[in-house]
Design goal:
This protein is an alpha/beta fold. It has 2 domains: 32 residues, no CATH class; 169 residues, 3-Layer(aba) Sandwich (Beta-carbonic Anhydrase, Chain A), CATH 3.40.1050.10. The chain contains 9 helices and 5 strands; from the N terminus they run H-H-E-H-E-H-E-H-H-H-H-H-E-E. Strands 2-1-3-4-5 form a 5-stranded mixed sheet. The longest helix has 21 residues. The structure holds cobalt (II) ion.
Length: 214
């Protein structure tokens, strides 16, 4: 039997000892409450850990991860995370972070069947169709995947802005920005795609909800 998981429990004990050594009040303080400024929506890929690559500590980032960092409007899990982060925690920034070399994006570009996940990946095919002129014009396959990774992130920024959760926050003059970033597995650097949304005007008018705030 493989017991490699036991090492994780050992690592945890060593980590607790180190945290207490550095700051005896570490757990007392963190256990009181959380007030993160950031919501991170990233890929489940094991090589893109939100806190590590952003140099943030426990308590600083509220995290949601799924395959290919998607914002799917029928996903109760994502909507619940978004609602809690925006309405209760009142995060100031939402960061959608994709990554080059994303297996989900690569799978979506091909025709192979993978099972249930095909239904999830189809949303990425929709992103491809929306931008097919630009993508089909890129001859190099790797470059085409990289661009689809970027376009997928940009679409998810739009998809967040489309939600009533985000628009109600903007209508209430709550400070809330949505950013699109891509992580490069090859050099560890994050790239800002420059698609920051700060108000409903950043969205096409067809998506605008009427202000229902009293
Ligand atoms: Co990925």
């Amino acid at each position: 039997m493989n017991n490699s998981h036991l090492q994780l429990l050992e690592n945890n004990k060593a980590w607790v000892t180190l945290q207490k050594y550095n700051d005896p009040e570490y757990f007392n303080e963190l256990s009181k409450a959380q007030s993160p400024e950031y919501l991170w929506i990233g890929c489940s890929d094991s090589r893109v850990p939100a806190n590590q690559i952003t140099g943030t500590k426990s308590g600083e980032v509220f995290v949601h991860r799924n395959i290919a960092n998607m914002v799917v409007h029928s996903d109760m899990n994502m909507l619940s995370v978004l609602s809690y982060a925006v309405e209760v925690l009142k995060v100031k920034h939402i960061i959608v972070c994709g990554h080059y070399g994303c297996g989900g994006v690569m799978a979506a570009m091909g025709g192979k069947q993978y099972g249930l996940i095909d239904n999830w990946l189809r949303h990425i095919k929709d992103v491809y169709r929306l931008h097919h002129k630009e993508l089909d014009a890129i001859e190099d396959k790797d470059q085409r995947v990289r661009r689809l990774v970027e376009l997928n992130v940009i679409e998810q920024v739009h998809d967040l802005g489309k939600t009533s959760i985000v628009q109600n926050a903007w209508n209430n003059d709550q400070e809330l920005q949505i950013h699109g970033w891509v992580y490069d597995l090859n050099d560890g650097l994050l790239k800002d795609l420059g698609v920051t949304f700060k108000c409903a005007k950043d969205l096409h008018a067809v998506y605008h909800f009427e202000d229902t705030t009293p």
